Amino acid sequence: MLDDTLLDDPAALQRADRDRALLALAGAGARVRTALRLADAAGLDRLRPDGRPRAVLVAGHGSALTAGEILTALAGHAGLITTLPPTEAAAPRADRAGAPPAFTAGLGWQLPGWAGPLDLLVVSSADGGEPGLVGLAEQAYARGCAIVVTAPAGSPLAEAALQVRALPLPYVASALPEDEAPAGPAAEPDLPAEDPAALWSHLAPLLALAQKIGITQLPYDALPAVADLLDATAVRCRPDAAAYTNPAKGLAARLAGTVPLLWAEGPIAGAVATRFAAQLAERAGRPALAGPLPQVLTAHRGMFTGQLGAGADPDDFFRDRVDEPDPLHLQVLLLRHVPGAPGAQPGVRPGGAPEEQGGPAEVPEDDAGPRSFGVTRAHRLAGAHDVRLTEYATTRPDPLHALADLVALTDFAAVYLGLAAAQS
């Protein structure tokens, strides 16, 4: 069981945060600004596309693919967006120094058979050393695809971008001071933990590109404003903020000792739920199931009537429980983006209560705001089986800003849950 008092001990949190995840998240806004500035300097602002591509293919792994999924949610039906995950893995070769190679060095990607001159391939990598991505760029060049590569300057992938006539965009790494560098050996050296803020270094140039080629219809100042929103969330969710004023700490405490079901209404919230499930696994070591309404009601229904449901009967009511750990129960986290709610205004929840300091906050159970039938049925299902349902909703009119708010909050919550659990 999590001792939530640990969340109010900034010194203990700092000691537990060996890879400086909180500091990396705090710098996400600065990374967005730097990525946008460097993308323009690399030539993105001078790009004059001749129409939109038939399809945009986003290749990479980890947060690079998440960025592609977010682009899909933001673009809607404006274009065909396809993510290209690795399709194969081979034993990577050790480098000349004899250091163990990363698992990602052996990954392979394959371009779809239909991809051709009408399509755009976006390759994004935080390392830039994956031979499989270099090979994918070469495949696309042979097929006549337009190519954009986001990778660290001087990396093999960045150099390959010049050979295949791609538009090279720099990847912005975390700017941790030397005395704040991650410490301690990795549990799996060839499978290192991903930088929790890497998503924004992939997403910022990708969205700037999508805006330039007409895939998204974002306001001209939408991307710079994301950096300000990330900064504001970092202030609200800072380690020295008490749990009762820190929404990320409060969310982490709610999820402790539970099996989270991350339900989402709408594509924006769906992308956030998928991201949150991945971060809970990566940062907190906790399994979570994510899915969109209304499909998730039938997909997860059986869990409410099983042993994880709060109303499930034990096998032996009179057995001795002194030495037993606290049982796990379900916790539903419902994420919503409701910009079209009647009377909704920026920063105001559906029920009329202000969002906490401009960011998403928990919606009260007795909230009188409008709900879709899927949301109403979700509340009924949870209530019928005594399962706690916590709802977060944002009414920000801009979908990108709503997504940034929710992603930043849940990213911090995943890190806090992992740090507090490590100390318990």
What's the structural blueprint in terms of helices and strands?
Elements: H1 10-16, H2 21-26, H3 28-41, E1 55-59, H4 63-75, E2 80-84, E3 88-89, E4 107-108, E5 120-124, H5 131-143, E6 146-151, H6 156-163, E7 167-170, H7 198-213, H8 222-236, H9 247-255, E8 258-265, H10 267-284, E9 289-292, H11 295-299, H12 301-305, E10 329-337, E11 361-363, H13 373-384, E12 388-394, H14 399-423
Parallel strand pairs: 1-2, 1-5, 5-6, 6-7, 8-9, 8-10, 10-12
Antiparallel strand pairs: 3-4, 11-12
Characterize the main sheet: 5 strands, parallel
Identify the strand order in the major beta sheet: 2-1-5-6-7
Low-confidence stretches: 342-347, 351-357
Strand content: 5-15%
The first-to-last residue Cα distance is 8 Å
Strand tally is 12
What value does the Rg take, in angstroms? 22 Å
**SSE order in H/E notation?**
HHHEHEEEEHEHEHHHEHEHHEEHEH
Give a written overview of the molecule.
With 424 residues, this protein is α/β, with parallel strands linked by helices. It is 39% helix and 14% strand. It has 14 helices and 12 strands. The chain has helices at 10-16, 21-26, 28-41, 63-75, 131-143, 156-163, 198-213, 222-236, 247-255, 267-284, 295-299, 301-305, 373-384, 399-423; strands at residues 55-59, 80-84, 88-89, 107-108, 120-124, 146-151, 167-170, 258-265, 289-292, 329-337, 361-363, 388-394. The strands form 3 sheets. A 5-stranded parallel beta sheet has the order 2-1-5-6-7, sandwiched between helices. The chain has a 5-stranded mixed beta sheet with strand order 9-8-10-12-11, sandwiched between helices. Helix 3 (28-41) packs antiparallel against helix 8 (222-236). The radius of gyration is 22 Å and the shape is globular. The chain starts with 9 loop residues before the first helix and ends with a helix. Residues 342-347 and 351-357 have low confidence and may be disordered.
